[in-house]
Design brief:
Structural class: mainly alpha
Shape: globular
Strand content: 5-15%
Strand order of the largest sheet: 1-3-2
Largest sheet: 3 strands, mixed
Radius of gyration: 14 Å
Distance between the termini: 44 Å
Length: 120
């Protein structure tokens, strides 16, 4: 997909909607590899130069998400990627797998999640 101001606004709106549904603070969104490389190195550490390979990357400790809009082929994949990365933010202890994918599907269907609480 090609980034234009309308698409950028639509992505930010979707991120806002899903963030409130998932009870997480709205993350800062990066949409180009150039924006990733312009961020301080400590914020994008680990997936700095390899980020271009993925549809999206979450930088949990800095509340930062990279959505690789140029690599994403269509609207459905874009929405899946947004929800996928925000589920990473809401459930930081979960890695990819069956349960993670179930949460992504629930998020896409409109499910709301309570705020994250660390177990005592």
């Amino acid at each position: 997909m090609k980034i234009d101001p309308d698409l950028r606004l639509a992505i930010l709106e979707k991120v806002g909607i899903y963030s409130s549904r998932f009870s997480i603070p709205e993350p800062h969104i990066l949409m180009t590899t150039k924006e990733v490389l312009e961020m301080p190195k400590d914020m994008t550490e680990g997936r700095r130069t390899s980020a271009y390979k993925y549809y999206g990357v979450s930088y949990l400790q800095h509340n930062l998400v990279f959505i690789n809009v140029r690599k994403i082929p269509d609207e459905k994949t874009l929405e899946n990627t947004i929800v996928h990365e925000l589920i990473h933010m809401r459930f930081p202890y979960l890695s990819h797998g069956r349960r993670f994918n179930k949460l992504v599907r629930q998020g896409l269907r409109g499910k709301k999640f309570a705020p994250y609480k660390k177990r005592s």
